[in-house]
Structure formats: structure tokens, C-alpha cells
Write a structure and sequence with these properties.
alpha/beta; seven-stranded mixed sheet; 17 helices; 7 strands
Length: about 400
């Protein structure tokens, strides 16, 4: 693994030292204090840090492997999910084999909760957890860098100025992912760089192309290499997004000015908000492993998207937003006969739809008027994607 030192997660032999660094890091202790005792942390932060440090040492101080650490964390993740969701459901896991490694390529709505809920469900059902792809922008904060590398995260380098450096970085990433699958380590990676803040989940062909880069010299075709990767499209559907107003503000700013500059603590704040904020019902669908890949990155991306959109769990919040929208980007591409028949995994009563519409109105009222169309669209767009997935593929 030495060739991957710049991007790899921590190994078992590095666990104890990394935990020791964290339990003595004041910034980390303050972060945990915000989770455990938000009100007390505001008034007596020093006392909370001391209590948190003692608790961490007691609970995790003697963990000697990544697997042991994750097993101890499971109950706390379970409590977090219970506090921030109505329920978490899943489908498709019965089509997967716990003894196999998979390349889970997922839509991306929340920085940390997306891979967290996938690994939570895998662990609960007897599957090994995945290695997690994270952008190097999250590593600017040393606390998150330590936490994520302890949680089997590996680094995807972004914003590389030189084409040659970018190619080398992608080749290393490709080699690491292939090496992981070959050594029975599953991977979670988002379908494109950054979150889909507008609710439109589309796979970047550059990602699927990257998977193949290290296999070119082997003589395998693209399709042969991809079939060996056990690619599983994953659809994560949130009833409500704790960061929806923040995303709407960013989208409006980009639309108006052509640019958006993040505040220095923005990623950290949205990680905390995404983890602790109310999400309602969360559903995760694990697709069928792709065993008959097309022979091009672009076509494979389309296959992944179609599987994702066809199995995306539409919530009443999505349907309420779609109904509230007077126009939908690309709606003219959907025949009216199809538009009137939305396939969803649940049958919603009039009372449930009325409650969802009222909640959507409340969220819109809490937004500045300029942000409202963007917030509405991020909830409505998954309906449009689902409708398009019902149409026959174009030649």
C-alpha cells in the first residue's frame, strides 16, 4: 500500500496513535461537545471538553483496529439516526453477496451522512463496510482529516491545475480503487464531484473513465474491466434536506453572479448540520451489480443514472414540490401521459400529501424570495428524473 500513502485511509497499525491524537485535540473535543451537549457547550465549553475527553478515552481509547473502532461506533450512529430521522429503510441488499467486494457508485446529497448511512446499513446486515472517497477540500481541517482516515476514507484530489498532474492523480486513484476491489475491500464513491445541490443526479463520465485508467495496459476492454468491478448504483433519498436553504442560497448566488465563494468554515458547518439536522424518512436502494457494461464511459454513466433514477424512492415532499412548481426544467421532454403517473414505492394519502405541501410551504417561507425557486427545484427534480427513467431508452 506504500504507493498509495498520499491518499489511503489509516491501517489497523495506525489506529491507536490516531485515536490518541484526536482525544487530545481541543478542536475535536469541541466538535464532539457540540454534538453531545450543545447548550452546555455554549456556556461551559472547557468543562464539556474535559467530560468529552474522559468519555472518549473510556469508550474508544483501547481500540486497536479500524474494524473494532467501527463496531464500537455502531450504537452511536444508530442513536444519531434515531434522533435525526423518522426511519431509515433500504432495498436491494438481498441481491448482493457479503463475501464479495463492490464498487458502490452513489448519488450525493450530504457530505458525511451519505456514506455513513450506506455503511450503517451494510454493517447492520452483515456486510463489510466500504472505503469512502472524499474530496481533499475536507482535509484542510486536520480534525476531519484524522476522523475520515480513521473511518476508511481515501482522498480524491481536486482542482489540480496541471493536466499532467491531474492524469497522474486519477491514475493513482484508479489503481487504488482497483487494488481495493481485488483485495476484497468495497468502495463508496459519489457519481460526480460535489453534492447534487439541485437534486439532479447525473454520473460524470470522467468518473467511470477513471475506473479504467489503470487497466488499459492489461489488454482488457473497458466493458471487461467494468464487469469485474461489481459496480452497484446506489440511490439515497432524503425526505428533507437539513442543508436545503444553504444549497438554495449557493445555487441562487451562482445563477446571479456566476460564482460562489465558500466561507472558511462552511464545509464544517454543513457537515454538522447534515449530521444533526432532521431528515425525515431516508431510503437507500442498492442496485443490481452491473454485469453487462457498455464499452464506453459515457454509456456506462447512462446505465448507472437510469438504474439510480428508476429506483429512487420518491417521498411525499418530492411530489408536493413537483406539484407546487409551475415549471420544471426539461419538463417538455416528458410526455403528459407519463407525467401524470409517478411511480413511487409508497401510496400517499391525501392527508400525507397535504402535510407535505404544508411543510414545503413552511420551508419556502423561511427562505429569502430569491432562493425559493431553487429550494423547490431541488425537491422536485427527482420526480422529473424518475419520470424520464420510465421512458424507453433513446437509440
Amino acid at each position: 500500500m506504500q504507493e498509495f500513502d498520499a491518499i489511503r485511509p489509516y491501517g489497523d497499525d495506525e489506529t491507536e496513535a490516531a485515536i490518541a491524537r484526536l482525544v487530545n485535540d481541543q478542536e475535536f473535543l469541541s466538535l464532539i461537545g457540540r454534538f453531545k451537549s450543545p447548550m452546555l457547550n455554549r456556556w461551559l465549553p472547557g468543562l464539556v471538553r474535559i467530560a468529552v475527553q474522559r468519555w472518549l478515552k473510556r469508550q474508544f481509547g483501547d481500540a486497536s483496529s479500524i474494524g473494532e473502532l467501527q463496531a464500537r461506533l455502531y450504537d452511536y450512529v444508530d442513536q444519531l439516526i434515531a434522533k435525526t430521522t423518522n426511519r431509515v429503510t433500504y432495498s436491494g441488499l438481498d441481491n448482493l453477496d457479503p463475501s464479495k467486494a463492490y464498487l458502490f457508485i452513489s448519488n450525493h446529497r450530504d457530505i458525511v451522512f451519505d456514506p455513513l448511512v450506506v455503511n450503517y446499513l451494510l454493517f447492520a446486515n452483515g456486510f463489510p463496510t466500504t472505503r469512502i472517497a472524499i474530496g481533499d477540500n475536507l482535509l484542510h481541517n486536520r480534525v476531519f482529516a484524522e476522523m475520515m482516515r480513521l473511518n476508511k476514507s481515501f482522498v480524491v484530489k481536486r482542482n489540480i491545475p496541471s493536466p499532467r498532474e491531474m492524469r497522474d492523480a486519477y491514475l493513482t486513484l484508479s489503481s487504488f480503487i482497483n487494488h481495493s476491489i481485488e483485495n476484497s475491500e468495497s468502495i463508496w464513491i459519489a457519481q460526480r464531484e460535489g453534492r447534487a445541490k439541485d437534486g439532479i443526479d447525473e454520473t460524470d463520465p470522467a468518473i467511470t473513465k477513471m475506473f479504467y485508467m489503470c487497466r488499459k495496459k492489461t489488454g482488457e476492454t473497458f466493458a471487461e474491466a467494468m464487469n469485474r468491478m461489481n459496480i452497484v448504483p446506489v440511490s439515497i433519498a432524503y425526505e428533507y434536506d437539513p442543508c436545503d436553504r444553504d444549497k438554495a442560497r449557493e445555487l441562487e448566488t451562482r445563477a446571479r453572479t456566476g460564482n460562489y465563494a465558500k466561507a472558511s468554515n462552511e464545509d464544517t458547518d454543513q457537515i454538522v448540520k447534515g449530521l444533526t439536522g432532521f431528515k425525515g424518512h431516508v431510503h437507500v436502494h442498492f442496485g443490481t451489480p452491473i454485469s453487462d457494461s457498455p464499452d464506453s464511459p459515457k454509456e456506462l454513466a447512462k446505465v448507472i443514472d437510469r438504474e439510480m433514477h428508476a429506483n429512487y424512492h420518491l417521498h411525499a415532499s418530492n411530489l408536493a414540490a413537483y406539484n407546487l412548481s409551475s415549471t420544471h426544467p426539461g419538463a417538455h421532454d416528458v410526455p403528459e401521459t407519463v407525467r401524470d403517473t409517478v411511480v413511487t414505492a409508497e401510496a400517499w394519502t391525501p392527508a400525507e400529501m397535504e402535510a407535505a405541501a404544508a411543510e414545503m410551504d413552511r420551508r419556502l417561507d423561511a427562505c429569502e424570495p430569491a432562493f425559493r425557486p431553487f429550494l423547490l427545484a431541488m425537491y422536485a427534480n427527482p420526480v422529473l428524473s424518475s419520470l424520464k427513467a420510465q421512458q424507453p431508452p433513446t437509440e
